TrEMBL record, chain A:
Family in the record: Belongs to the chromate ion transporter (CHR) (TC 2.A.51) family.
Keyword Repressor appears in the UniProt entry: no
A GO cellular component annotation in the UniProt record: plasma membrane
Region (Disordered): 1-34
UniProt source species: Acidisoma cellulosilyticum
Protein keywords: Cell membrane, Membrane, Transmembrane, Transmembrane helix
Sequence intervals crossing the membrane: 114-137, 143-163, 170-187, 193-209
Domain of life, source organism: Bacteria
Compartmental location: Cell membrane
Name of the molecule in the record: Chromate transporter
Polar residues biased stretches: 1-23
Topological type in the membrane: Multi-pass membrane protein
Automatic annotation (TrEMBL), chain B:
Transmembrane is among the record's keywords: yes
Protein family according to the UniProt entry: Belongs to the chromate ion transporter (CHR) (TC 2.A.51) family.
Organism of provenance: Acidisoma cellulosilyticum
Protein's UniProt name: Chromate transporter
Positions of transmembrane segments: 50-68, 75-96, 116-133, 145-174
GO cellular component, one term: plasma membrane
Length: 225, 176
C-alpha cells in the first residue's frame, strides 16, 4: 500500500477525504496534460445517493446538475449537458444512464457501479415501504396536495436548470436559435426525441465545428505543425 | 421465487430496457401490457398506483420496475427486476463512456459535439418541464407555487430541498 499520493486530487468541496486509500489502487487513465477529474467510489456513492434522495416528486436531472456541476465541480455545463443528450439517445432510463456515464468518467468501472448503487439502492428500499403506506393513504386529499406541492417544486427546479444552464451555454444568437427550435419541435409540436435531434443535432454540431475552425484559423497562421 | 419466474422477470425487464429509446417512461405501456395482461403479476389498478408512487418517490421513476418485480416475486422479484432493468443498458453506457474518455485530449470533434449539443439539451429540458407541468393537475395554487419557487430558486442560492419542503407544506395548507 503506497501512501496517499497527491495525484488523485479530489474536489475541494470535500474536506473529509476518506482515509482509506484502496480506491486509488485502480489503474489511472493514461496520463494527460490536463489531468482528468477523478473521485473515489465512496464519494460517488454518497453524491448519487444524495441526488436520488433529494428528488422526491421529480427534478432528478436538475439535482444531478446541481451536485455534479455546481457543488462537486466534476464536470462543466457543456460536458454535462452533452452527456445528458447522449444518455437520452442510448436505450434505458436516462437518469440511470447519466449516473453510469458520470461514474465511469470519474472512476471507471468502480465509478459506474458506485454511481448506480448510490442512485438506486436507497430508493428501491424506500419504494417498497412507500408502496405499503400508499395503499392506506392514497385517497387522502392532504397527501395528494403535499405530493402536488413536491411536483410543483420539481418543475421549478427544472425551470431553474434551464435558467442556469442557459446563462452559460446560450451566449450568442446561434445557440439561442438552436435552443428555441429544439423547444418548439419537442415541447410545442411534440415531435419525438429522434425526429427533433435528427433536425437540430447536425445543425448544432456543424455550427460548433465551423466555429472551432474559424477560431483555429484566427490564431497565428504560421503555426502549421 | 421459482427459476421460471426469475427468467420471466429477466426477459420482461431486460429486453424492454434495451428497447427503451427515449427514456424509461417511453416503455411504460410495454410494462403494463407485459405485467398486467400477459403475466398477471398485478392488476391494472395496482399498476396505476405503482406508477404514481414511483413518480412521487425519490429516485429515478424507472424504479417502478422494483414495485412491479415486488408484486411478482417479493423482495427477490424486486431485486431481479431492478437489476434486469439497469445492468444491460448500464454496460452499454459504460462501454461508450470508456471510449469517450479515451479520446481525452483536445479532440476537436468531441468539443464540437459538446458545444453543439448543449443548447439543444437546454431546449429539451424546457420541453420536458412543460410536459410534466401539463400532466400535473393544473390547479392555480400549484401553478402559483411553481412560479414563486422558480423565481426563488433562480434569484437566490437557497438549497432546493428547502423549497421542495415548503411547496409540500404549502400544498398541505391550501388543501385544508
Amino acid at each position: 500500500m503506497t501512501p496517499n499520493s497527491s495525484t488523485n486530487d479530489v474536489a475541494e468541496t470535500e474536506p473529509n477525504n476518506p482515509v482509506s486509500d484502496e480506491t486509488s489502487g485502480a489503474a489511472p487513465a493514461a496520463p494527460d496534460e490536463a489531468s482528468p477529474i477523478r473521485a473515489t467510489a465512496w464519494e460517488i456513492v454518497r453524491t448519487f445517493n444524495e441526488i436520488s434522495l433529494s428528488s422526491f416528486g421529480g427534478g432528478l436531472s436538475a439535482w444531478s446538475r446541481e451536485m455534479v456541476v455546481a457543488r462537486r465541480k466534476w464536470m462543466n455545463d457543456a460536458e454535462f449537458l452533452s452527456a445528458m443528450t447522449i444518455c437520452r439517445i442510448l436505450p434505458g432510463a436516462n437518469q440511470v444512464n447519466l449516473a453510469v456515464f458520470v461514474g465511469t468518467k470519474l472512476n471507471g468501472l468502480r465509478g459506474a457501479g458506485a454511481a448506480l448503487a448510490g442512485l438506486i439502492a436507497m430508493p428501491t428500499l424506500l419504494l417498497v415501504g412507500i408502496a405499503a403506506l400508499y395503499a392506506a393513504f392514497q385517497h387522502s386529499h392532504a397527501v395528494q396536495h403535499v405530493l402536488g406541492g413536491f411536483a410543483a417544486a420539481a418543475v421549478a427546479m427544472t425551470l431553474q436548470m434551464v435558467w442556469k444552464t442557459g446563462r452559460t451555454t446560450l451566449t450568442s444568437i446561434v445557440p439561442i436559435l438552436l435552443f428555441a427550435l429544439t423547444f418548439v419541435l419537442n415541447g410545442i409540436l411534440r415531435w419525438p426525441l429522434w425526429w427533433t435531434l435528427a433536425v437540430t443535432a447536425p445543425l448544432g454540431i456543424g455550427w460548433a465545428w465551423r466555429r472551432a475552425h474559424r477560431k483555429a484559423q484566427a490564431r497565428p497562421p504560421g503555426a502549421a505543425s | 421465487m421459482t427459476l421460471t419466474l426469475a427468467l420471466q422477470l429477466c426477459s420482461v425487464f431486460g429486453i424492454t430496457s434495451l428497447l427503451a429509446f427515449g427514456g424509461g417512461n417511453a416503455v411504460i405501456p410495454q410494462f403494463e401490457q407485459q405485467t398486467v395482461s400477459v403475466h398477471h403479476w398485478l392488476t391494472a389498478q395496482q399498476f396505476t398506483d405503482s406508477f404514481a408512487i414511483a413518480q412521487a418517490a425519490p429516485g429515478p421513476s424507472t424504479l417502478i420496475v422494483s414495485l412491479l418485480g415486488y408484486r411478482a416475486g417479493g423482495v427477490w422479484g424486486a431485486l431481479i427486476a431492478t437489476a434486469a432493468m439497469v445492468v444491460p443498458t448500464g454496460l452499454i453506457v459504460y462501454g461508450l463512456a470508456k471510449v469517450w474518455d479515451r479520446g481525452h485530449g483536445d479532440k476537436p470533434f468531441r468539443h464540437a459535439l459538446q458545444d453543439g449539443l448543449a443548447p439543444i439539451t437546454v431546449g429539451l429540458i424546457l420541453a420536458g418541464g412543460m410536459v410534466v407541468a401539463r400532466q400535473a393537475e393544473s390547479h392555480w395554487v400549484q401553478l402559483a407555487m411553481t412560479v414563486v419557487a422558480t423565481v426563488v430558486l433562480c434569484a437566490t442560492k437557497i438549497n432546493p430541498l428547502i423549497v421542495a419542503v415548503c411547496c409540500g407544506f404549502a400544498g398541505y395548507v391550501f388543501s385544508a
